[in-house]
Amino acid sequence: MKKFLAALMILVLAMTGMALAEEAKVMTYADYVAAAIDDEVVIECYVQDHQSWWSDKITVYAADEDGAYFIYEMACTEEDAAKLVPGTKIRVTGFKGEWAGEVEIMDATFEFVEAEPFIAEAKDLTEVLATEELVNYQNQLAVFKGLTIEAISYKNGEPGDDIYVTVKQGENTFEFCVERYLTGPETEVYAAFAELQAGDVVDITGYVYWYNGVNTHITAVAKAE
Fold first, then answer.
1. How far apart are CA 16 and CA 47, in angstroms?
2. How many other C-beta atoms lie within 10 A of the C-beta of residue 223?
3. Is 96 helix (H, G, I), strand (E, B) or coil?
4. 85: how many CB neighbours lie within 10 A of its CB?
5. Is 192 helix (H, G, I), strand (E, B) or coil?
6. Among 30, 35, 40, residue whose Cα is nearest residue 66
7. What whole-number distance in Å separates Cα of residue 197 and Cα of residue 222?
8. Which residues of 175-209 are buried (b: 16+ CB within 10 A; e: fewer)?
9. Would you call 88 helix, strand, or coil by DSSP?
10. C-alpha distances out from residue 107 to 26, 117, 157, 179, Å
11. Backbone φ and ψ of 114, nearest 5°
12. What is the pLDDT of residues 85-140, one digit of tens each?
């Protein structure tokens, strides 16, 4: 009996150690940033928004108190997609990838984590828009104030698809985007661009996505006061 109890205790301790080791795999944001491209990553984060669900995949904009993440085409059922409301905490396992400068998590799976909701506030990054520092805020929700619209065009030439927005800040020009799978034609931000034109000065809020340079995915726009 004593031998059985001893063996049972060893088994319990081993399983506890395995559980603790598994928990220790969860990275901080700093760990994630330090990880190499193609490394496996495990993070816990909070959903901020997501693109349209399709074919058992969903692309998520996520954040924690220290930074933000772009989770590309994460495996997800339609039922679970409906539960990915802003503020929901999830544990994500995938691989760190990069495409056209955008650092993202690829081939990801997830599980829900019970926690109080967290919604990140938009950071005012107006002063760093034209600097190399901006990339340090990649995927975070940001606001850029006092930008001048230089051009607005629709992918495929007409409303219904992405909107390409060229903005200027001083002598610098940037290409932003209204991503239809995030903020489609039925949203206020999409409709707002039908009322804007070249020369308007606006404040733009969006996720600091990257495509060969900053390509903010716009979530709100308003004429500057």
1. 30
2. 12
3. strand
4. 10
5. helix
6. 30
7. 12
8. bbbbbbebbbeeeebbebbeebeeebebbbbbbbb
9. coil
10. 17, 25, 33, 21
11. -75, 125
12. 999 999 999 999 999 999 999 999 999 999 999 999 999 999 999 999 999 999 99
DSSP string, 97-135: EEETTEEEEEEEEEEE-------PPPEE-GGGTTSGGGG
- What b/e string do you get for 141-158 counting C-beta neighbours within 10 Å, with b at 16 or more? bbbbbebbbeebeeeeee
* HEC readout, 151-187: EEEEHHHCECECEEEEEEECCEEEEEEECCCCCCCCC
CB neighbour list of residue 53: distance below 8 Å, 6 or more residues apart: 76, 78, 81
pLDDT 10s digits, 10-63: 454 445 445 544 554 999 999 999 999 999 999 999 999 999 999 999 999 999
Cα 218 off chain centre by:
12
Gap between the Cα atoms of 172 and 36, Å rounded: 31
Question: Residue 188 has which token pair?
Answer: 């206020």
144, two tokens: 């850029």
- pTM as predicted: 0.89
Count of CB atoms within 10 A of residue 172's CB? 11
